[in-house]
What does this fold into?
Amino acid sequence: MNKSIQYQKYLKKQKINKLLVILTQLAIVIFLIGLWQFLANKEIINVFIYSSPQKVVETIISLHVDNNLYNHIFITVYETIISFILGTLIGTIIAILLWWNNFLYKVMDPYLTILNSLPKVALGPIIIIIVGANMNSIIVMALLISVIITILNVYNGFSNTDQNKINLLKSFQATKFQILKMVILPNSYPTIISSLKINVSMSLIGLLPPVGEKTFFNKCYSRY
It folds into this structure.
């Protein structure tokens, strides 16, 4: 009976802590938005550059009235999902190939490092020339941002697998595919899930300003 009471107290304490965390997070957001609006009202920041919460709300209402808001949301969500799925699949497949062939990894390693550090926005005009001035160019931009990170993260997860488990399977004459299926992939699930979380944000970054908007500007500029 005493244990049950203690357990109930523990659960109650956990719920209170969780509620406090959520309330603190909301308070921080409200404070930052209020500070943003205050700085805009006092003209401490340039409203033309940084906008303000009030103008953001007015823009959302204006887009809703003009029946453009949900079309923009749909396009952004669609592009994010496409780039997220492609980035995850392509990145994971390439990571498997690099793990499968160590020679290929040694050859590609410096190039992956360079591509990861390369500012993807600089590739915008080249992407438009190759892919075309359409939605595909923006998806490719988001894909470039997410796929390299996926390759590196997933491959690191493969490399950090317990070598003793691999050696145990090798002692039973397991094939490389069996090692991949029974040890490498199951042990790398946390890394892959973590990569999925990163991919969502990376895909969205590739679609939103300044990356996606710059691609749009380049498209418009190229027509004149």
The first helix runs from residue 2 to 41. The domain at 67-224 is CATH 1.10.3720.10 (MetI-like fold). The chain is about 85% helix and 0% strand.
